[in-house]
Amino acid sequence: MIRGVRGAITVTADQPEQILQETRRLVLEIIEKNNIEPDDVASVIISTTTDISSAFPAKAVRTLENWTYVPVMCTHEMDVPGSLPLCIRVMMHVETKLAQKDVQHIYMNEATKLRPDLLKDSQVSNQ
């Protein structure tokens, strides 16, 4: 079964090093909590709020060992007034035997505000 695995993280500034570092941290946490192997990933979509434009977060995923051939694409989120700024969101489409309710969606830093209903007690939420 292909399932969507979600995650989001915020950065404090539109700086390439921070964008890549925090994207990598988020993706590694998603991978660990859901036991994801690169060969099980159909694709990854990464979106950013429009205030992030200095780096492609997908670059962070492509640097992970054995993730070279995983299709990754970046896009911008809708620019909705009052939405959470400086936010990077990830959607992985993964082949898994996990039930929908057992998928661990990961929200870190200020992004924990997006889906508090999905936070697990064991989830890392801040730096």
From TrEMBL:
UniProt GO MF annotations: chorismate mutase activity
Keyword Amino-acid biosynthesis in annotation: yes
InterPro entries: Chorismate_mutase_AroH (IPR008243), RutC-like_sf (IPR035959)
Residues binding prephenate, per UniProt: R6, R89, Y107
The keyword Amino-acid biosynthesis is assigned to this record: yes
Alphabetical keyword list: Amino-acid biosynthesis, Aromatic amino acid biosynthesis, Isomerase
EC number: 5.4.99.5
Enzyme class, first EC level, given as a word: isomerase
Stored Gene3D superfamilies: RutC-like (3.30.1330.40)
GO biological process, one term: amino acid biosynthetic process
PROSITE patterns (UniProt xref): CHORISMATE_MUT_1
Reactions catalysed: chorismate = prephenate
Cited PANTHER family: CHORISMATE MUTASE, CHORISMATE MUTASE AROH
Protein name (record): chorismate mutase
Organism annotation: Planococcus salinus
GN (gene name): aroH
